[in-house]
Amino acid sequence: MSYFPQLLEGRYEALHFFSDARTGLRAFVGVHSTKLGPALGGTRALSTYASEEEAAVDALRLAKGMTYKAALCGVPHGGGKAVIWLPPGRFDRAALFEAFGRAVDSLQGRYITTEDSGTSPADLANVHKHTRFAAGLEGKSGDPSPVTAFGVVRGIEAAARHVWGREDLKGLKVAILGVGHVGSALAGELHRRGASLWVADADPGRVEAAVQAFGATPVSAEDVVGLPVDVYAPCALGGAINDQTLPRLQAQVVAGAANNQLLEPRHGEALAARGIVYCPDYAINAGGLINVAQEVAGYDREKAIAGASRVYDTIAQILRRSKASGERPEVIADRIVDEKLYG
After folding, report:
1. Catalytically annotated residues
2. d(CA 259, CA 262)
3. E-assigned strand segments in the chain
4. I want to staple 18 with a disulfide (CB 3.0 to 4.6 A). Which of 5, 27, 286, 339 is the partner?
5. Are 123 and 157 in a shared domain?
6. 251 and 274 Cβ atoms separated by less than 8 Å
7. What SS3 string covers 12-24?
8. CATH number of the structural domain spanning residue 124
9. 305 and 159 in a common domain
10. pLDDT in tens, 147-194
11. What are the Cα distances from residue 277, in Å, to 24, 272, 328?
């Protein structure tokens, strides 16, 4: 595959390939933009990519999302993302992430990495041994999940004001797909506000934990999308809104923490055609980025929480402009970012 057409069309700055024969490292770092500051974004580590093309395209797609997320929430960063295609079989994980740290360092600060799917604080600590361009470290900003979840619930409050004329979430029916770090924290935020919860996850233990902690009702991952609820909150991997799930949606609002919730742009069109309000993923889930960007600046927890709280204002602005213009929320969000980046 030639990557240049995609890079040019998407206005990407770079796609870096890194390898290390000793550890088996195969890594891709997509840098979408550094116009507003150094690119900041997590490292995703998976073994399930079918090809290097699939892994590279994932890095590019996620990097662009980080640019838009950073621009929309107002942090002084651009967008980047790393993907590590984990080697098959047994390997020295610590050594592999140390090799990745050296790769990140070679970019001389154009890209700052942090955690993402498949990486842990221990992995990031090994990266940090060889580069100062790593954030989200233990003892500093730490796990961004609670701040991400707080931002999402503030976005849901803005959506509730827009759709039902109230911010109070008491009695609101919310179905959550994925109760890992962020989904579980979101369930906690919603529970404290009196919402009724239905939860699904591929891991039965996570579901049981949410049932015990928040009084949630367990459902299967297949059935959760079709529940007659007020809000559907995708908090697992991307593509939750697709040809199979969209016809079954009964929620009035889609507002979750997952990245890239729309499998294709036409699925946003289909949501709008059915009158379902979509809170653009990169707008509502910006709390984690806000938290880690605050670490880069000099960590202050209160400032991070205050920044995440402003997700309410972002979602409210997007939905207000969407209603006034008749354009879809994700189109409005993209336009706000394009105005900042390209004038």
Report:
1. 81
2. 9
3. 14-20, 25-33, 39-46, 78-85, 111-115, 173-177, 196-200, 217-218, 231-234, 253-254, 277-278
4. 27
5. no
6. no
7. CCEEEEEEECCCC
8. 3.40.50.10860
9. yes
10. 999 999 999 999 999 999 998 999 999 999 999 989 999 999 999 999
11. 44, 7, 9
